[in-house]
Design a protein that fits this description.
mainly alpha
């Protein structure tokens, strides 16, 4: 019995292992939309709550908080799914195949909406307007970043 493995068999095994890892970490198609919209609606309702006077204020606040909790729960469920599959996507620091530009865009772009929303809050003097702006900007950046990450995984799968 020989310990040599034919090159074709080794290449096939490597391709199968890679395909399995990429499939295991694939983000569901609905996830970018859910993450983005729950940000927009959650912070939007919190902003409306801050701008509203009267009996509807509590309902808007509760709705906004619930949507923010849905957002966090969705990310937790996705991470648990990856962990159960045995493969957790790694950052660009530990995975040299991820371009530095993508790592910067996926992590460096998050403070920009927060800074803009803070500026709106300072200019208007009302936290509600800042919250509305934060919701819209986080929705757009989150949806874009997660969709781009999903496309990146699909491109790796094709190779």
């Amino acid at each position: 019995m020989s310990g040599d493995i034919p090159p074709e068999t080794a290449l096939e095994a490597a391709q199968t292992a890679r395909r399995t890892a990429v499939d295991a970490t694939r983000m569901p198609r609905w996830f970018p939309a859910l993450a983005g919209l729950s940000y927009a609606l959650g912070f939007g309702l919190l902003g409306v709550s801050a701008l509203t006077h009267g009996s509807g204020r509590a309902a808007f606040a509760i709705g906004g908080l619930l949507l923010c909790i849905v957002n966090i729960a969705a990310f937790v469920l996705l991470a648990r799914r990856w962990l159960r599959a045995g493969v957790m996507p790694r950052s660009g620091d530990t995975m040299p195949s991820v371009p530095r530009r993508w790592v910067w865009l996926s992590t460096g772009i998050v403070p920009a909406p927060i800074a803009v929303a803070g500026l709106v809050w300072l200019v208007t003097g009302q936290v509600g307007w800042g919250s509305l702006v934060l919701g819209v900007l986080l929705e757009a950046s989150t949806w874009w970043r997660l969709s781009a990450g999903r496309r990146s995984v699909q491109e790796r799968r094709v190779r």
